[in-house]
Amino acid sequence: xxxxxNIPISNSECVLIFPFHHRFDELKQAEKADNWKTWLIRLxxxxxxxxNDATSxxxxxxxxxxxxxxxxxxxxxxxxxxxxxxxxxxxxxDFTLQFxxxxxxxxxxxxxxxxxxxxxxxxxxxxxxxxxxxxxxxxSLHQLVDFLRVIRMLLPTYNGxxxxxxxxxxxxxxxxxxxxxxxxxxxxENIIMINFGDEDGRVENKQVYPPISxxxxxxxxxxxxxxxxxxxxISKTDIAGLEMRDLWLYEIGTMTPIGSEDIxxxxxxxxxxxxxxxxxWESCQGxxxxxxxxxxxxxxxxxxxxxxxxTITRDYFFLYIFCLCQKIKLLKLQxxxxxxxxxxxxxxxxxxxxxxxxxxxxxxxxxADVTKNHIREEIYKKYQxxxxxxxxxxxxxxxxxxxxxxxxxxxxxxxxxxxxxxNRVIKIISAVLGIPLILISFLNINIRDYTNKxxxxxxxxxxxxxxxxxxxVGIALLINWRDNKKTKSG
Length: 490
Fold this sequence. Notes:
By secondary structure, the chain is of the alpha+beta class.
């Protein structure tokens, strides 16, 4: 597919989202972490009202779980929403991104942007989400696409391309911060579970660890809004039967400028757009993929539509946070799944714990109705489809159920075997005890009849009986030991 025309953009906003594990056993400890305070500290009265309105569309149970500050006090709280502070003010600064190598390909040059604030969502299962709100200084859609592609790079790519160099206008501490990965490490150093120094105390340039899932965290999640200054003559143009709006949506959703890869074909681009597009409004379209959500507002005026801007960047963003919350909890549950090759006799408690986690997740986060608004409900379904949470939930739920059924089958079989073994021991002891009883009875009768003397003394009879009891128990224990040895080796 040939390259499509570039298009100017008048406004844009991006949120870089990074899942992590935190170290707090109790959520109230989170607000005592250095540089982190409750997010209410950065909100004025008007912003509090806006966020209160934005979260009111959630069902009450979800609102109380995810945004307890906007609901009546709930104890214990399951979420803490914090903001990063620099001194007494919420952190904000300008920054630039620049590639260290000049031969990176079609992405090159310097990108300017501004960090407006940084929030963290701390959940009670030791998971969390870091959200860095960024205003890119991009003049065109292609430039914004390139910016999004490079800013979410935390580690070198498979072909050896290094992440871009980061230069902050406000240096938050004495540590060296050269990349977005370094910056995330710095932000989370008082929250995450472990330190980053090696055995010699040297700090290595590596990814925040432990992430929610190693496979998931080669890149950050992004949530993007952009307002396109639409040219009617360009927007009516189509390439290979696809509308220009669809092609722009594909570019920002996949962060791949069309025409940069020869392998793309018309059918593929068309299928991706139709399958993941959020097409509800006339003047705006969105796309929800596995690690990126983007909304494009089409306008013939450079002035920002504040109502629509706030709806997307607050209402729909909070909805995306909830969907990411679902996904990271499912990923954590997946990591806790037990391997079928493990000894089933040793994992009964872990299976019960997995079932408890699953039921807790279902009751708090996997509900039939999430919002009170049908448009938001439609967007919620698109988010879930793009993130793959439905398939992930189905896979994990089925695997936990299979584990439980397998364990129950083994446990029932083990109980039956124990009953059979007990019956066999009783039979062996009964058979062994029957012999001395018969002999003692026979000897007593015969001795009395033919010698006219007393039979066996009571002590002799007891000693004979005790000897056979010991013999019977010994035989039973020997057989039981042999059966157990066969079971373990099998």
